[in-house]
Structures are given as structure tokens and as C-alpha cells.
Design a protein that fits this description.
By secondary structure, this protein is α+β, with helices and mostly antiparallel strands. The strands form three sheets. The chain has a seven-stranded mixed beta sheet. Strands 1-2 form a two-stranded antiparallel sheet. Strands 8-9 form a two-stranded antiparallel ribbon. Strand 8 and strand 9 form a beta hairpin. The longest helix is centred in the C-terminal third of the chain and has 20 residues.
């Protein structure tokens, strides 16, 4: 990591103030690379801290991209927060970060509209003038105000947002008087810019992204050897080694934990895994492609909790469709899959959305991280892996 000499950011003992000062210095010097290197959840400075502390640190970091400039490699982190975030400070920071992008693009619009839906009933006052400002702060904004400011920044590239913005104006109890007045002005300006021929925006939904957005969240890196010896326990208490289960058939593997408090992450991931199972069955691929979910929280997520979590979200368990926890440390799997997760003293404090497709040797073939994955796209990749895994001479049309 490109960290200035004299800092202790490689240690979890780094104070919040040291972290904030490093972010401030990087923003002033427009050191975008350092800011990017601080984004991954596995950065040691995030370990052992509370979720609230991590939100504060990451929000301040994201907001710094507005002045430092937002490189494209940081865009998945920004879109992730807009799409799945439920914390007003983090969502506001992501909206600010977008304004540091070198160009304006309509591909941001669906994410901004989704952010409005996610945060409109959980909006709150925020300030990025300093780290941990002393409240009350007179010059504050809110997440919704920052989202609207980014839509203003997009200008004519945001005209597709008009239907959703007009709908928001019809909702009462969501916007303050000042925010409503600002939004009315924005709608008027965008209406003039877009004329009557503006194309409606895609519905803000987890399964719809532009091609530009999709290109940044399919993530493949060189990985360590398959952790064949790791012992796993499933939702029924049955045990199996990683190498035994993940050899012979392709697999779809999602990561989650039952105590996750963000419904846009773990709960939605498992619900969609159930949908994927049903689509695989419709195509006659059930049994040829394994579907698996592995918990980040193996000590808490005992078999009965795994079973109940999946059952309540439409997952059907079978020999090829199972939930697992590791019997020992998660570290070997975290290293193999390069998991984007960090841990507090007693619980996960931050994680990304993570889904992997493994080939019949247990090797990662595709990885869908950060942004919500699309069931049909994963299905297409899984079908390709199943066809590739067929013995030579088999009927590939099954």
C-alpha cells in the first residue's frame, strides 16, 4: 500500500484522527491512488472497529473524492453505496464523490434514484467540513440534498430521472421545505434541458444496470490454491471437506451472515439465490450446478440458524444445494475468495456483496462483487459452466 512513511495505517491501532488526517492530506494533494487503496474492506485499519466507526471512516474517505477527483477504479465503491447503502452519512458521501468524476454520465442516474428510495425515510443531517464535527453544525446538508446536488451536477445527463423526481415531489413528509423548493427548481431546469423527448429512466431495481456499470463489477484476480482441506458443516450438521464438495460439478457460491442488518445485502442475496435455484430447475440444470451460501459468521451461524435463514427466503436444500459454515477459522476461504469483509471485536463491521461461480475443479471462474448481481446473467454463466463440465460425447442439450 502506498502509505506515507511515519503513518501506522497498516496497523489496526491507527487512530481515527490519523486516518482522517491522511485522507485530508491525500485530498489536498489529489492523491487519488492512496484514497483508492484505502477503500477495500480488508484494509487493516478497519479491523477491530465498530460498524459506526467504519461508517464514519469510509464516509469521510468517499467524500474526499469530490475534491481529489474520482478515478474509475473507485466507481464500484460509490455505486455500491448508492445502490445498497442505508446509512445517510455514507449515501451522502457517495453522492458527493460522484461529483469528482472527470465526466458526467447518465449511467449514474439509476443508482441515484435507487439511493433516493433507500434513504428517503432514513435521511439525516450530515457534514463533511471536518471529521467528527461538533454538533449542532449550521452549514449541514442531508443525504437527499447531496443526491439532488449530484443530479444538478449531471445537468442534461440526468433528464431521464425526471419521472422519478416528479413522483418524489408528490410524496409528503419526505422532503423539508428547503429541499422541496430545490427539487422543484431542479425539475424545472431538467424539463427545459430535456424537452419532451427525454427517455424515461430505468426503474431503480437491483437487477438493472447499464453496460458501463456492469463492466466494473465483474471482478477476477489471481487466487491462491483451492482450499481443499477446509472442513465445512451444512445446515443439517453434515460435514464435508471443501475439496470433496466443490469437485465434480460447477457451483454458485454466495457469502452472507444471518445477523446482517442491511436488507439490501445478505437477505436480498439469499432471496435471489432461491430465485436462481428455481430458474436452474426450469432449465433442467438443478443437480448439475450446485448452489451454496457460506456464512462470514461461523461461530454464531450454527446449522439451525442457517437452515431457518434459507428456508424463510425461499431456498430449497438438497445434496447439491446447501448452506455452510467453516468449522475452524474463515481465513483460508477469505484468502482464497479475496473476500471484501472486515471484522469488529464481536461482529462483522462491513462487507460487500459477493457471489462466485466455481468450475468443476473448485476454481473461481467468475466473481460478482459490490453491485447487485442479476439472476439471469448469473444463470447464463452457470449454464455455460455446466456445458463445459459435461463429459465429451454427452448430450449438451439437456
Amino acid at each position: 500500500m502506498n502509505i506515507p512513511e511515519g503513518t501506522r495505517l497498516h496497523q489496526h491501532q491507527t487512530s481515527e484522527q490519523e486516518f482522517a488526517e491522511l485522507v485530508d492530506r491525500a485530498a489536498r494533494q489529489r492523491d487519488r491512488q492512496l484514497l483508492v487503496e484505502l477503500l477495500p474492506e480488508r484494509t487493516p485499519a478497519y479491523q477491530g472497529r465498530s460498524a459506526n466507526t467504519i461508517n464514519r471512516m469510509r464516509g469521510y474517505l468517499l467524500a474526499a473524492f469530490e475534491s481529489a477527483g474520482l478515478p474509475e477504479e473507485a466507481l464500484p465503491y460509490v455505486y455500491e453505496e448508492l445502490e445498497s447503502g442505508r446509512d445517510a452519512y455514507l449515501v451522502a458521501a457517495a453522492a458527493k464523490a460522484l461529483r469528482g468524476r472527470a465526466f458526467r454520465s447518465s449511467d449514474a442516474v439509476p443508482f441515484l434514484l435507487t439511493a433516493i428510495e433507500n434513504i428517503k425515510y432514513a435521511d439525516d443531517a450530515v457534514s463533511f467540513d471536518s471529521y467528527r464535527p461538533a454538533w449542532p453544525v449550521s452549514a449541514h446538508t442531508t443525504a437527499l440534498q447531496e443526491i439532488v446536488a449530484t443530479i444538478v451536477w449531471l445537468g442534461s445527463d440526468a433528464t431521464s430521472a425526471l419521472p422519478a423526481l416528479r413522483s418524489l415531489l408528490q410524496e409528503y413528509g419526505v422532503l423539508s421545505d428547503a429541499a422541496r423548493a430545490k427539487l422543484e427548481s431542479v425539475v424545472s431546469e431538467l424539463s427545459l434541458a430535456g424537452s419532451c423527448c427525454a427517455v424515461p429512466a430505468p426503474s431503480p431495481c437491483c437487477d438493472h444496470h447499464t453496460e458501463t456499470a456492469r463492466s466494473v463489477f465483474v471482478d477476477i484476480h489471481p487466487r491462491a490454491a483451492v482450499p481443499v482441506g477446509v472442513e465445512l458443516e451444512d445446515q443439517d450438521g453434515a460435514r464435508v471437506r471443501f475439496g470433496e464438495f466443490f469437485t465434480g460439478k460447477p457451483s454458485v457460491v454466495a457469502f452472507f451472515y444471518t445477523r446482517c442488518d442491511n436488507p439490501n445485502k445478505c437477505s436480498l442475496t439469499i432471496t435471489k439465490l432461491g430465485r436462481l435455484q428455481r430458474r436452474l430447475a426450469e432449465l433442467g440444470l438443478d443437480g448439475r450446478i450446485q448452489t451454496v451460501a457460506i456464512t462470514y459468521d461461523p461461530e454464531f451461524d450454527i446449522p439451525v440458524r442457517l437452515w431457518a435463514y434459507g428456508e424463510n427466503r425461499g431456498v430449497v436444500f438438497s445434496h447439491s444445494d446447501r448452506f455452510f459454515r467453516t468449522k475452524e477459522a474463515l481465513a483460508p476461504l477469505a484468502d482464497y475468495f479475496q473476500l471484501g469483509v472486515s471484522f469488529g471485536t464481536t461482529l462483522i463491521n462491513r462487507h460487500q456483496i459477493e457471489l462466485f461461480l466455481l468450475d468443476q475443479k473448485g476454481q473461481v471462474d467468475e466473481a460478482f462483487t459490490r453491485l447487485q448481481w442479476d439472476v439471469e446473467e448469473v444463470l447464463a454463466h452457470a449454464a455455460r459452466l455446466a456445458k463445459r463440465a459435461l463429459p465429451r460425447g454427452s448430450n449438451s442439450e439437456h
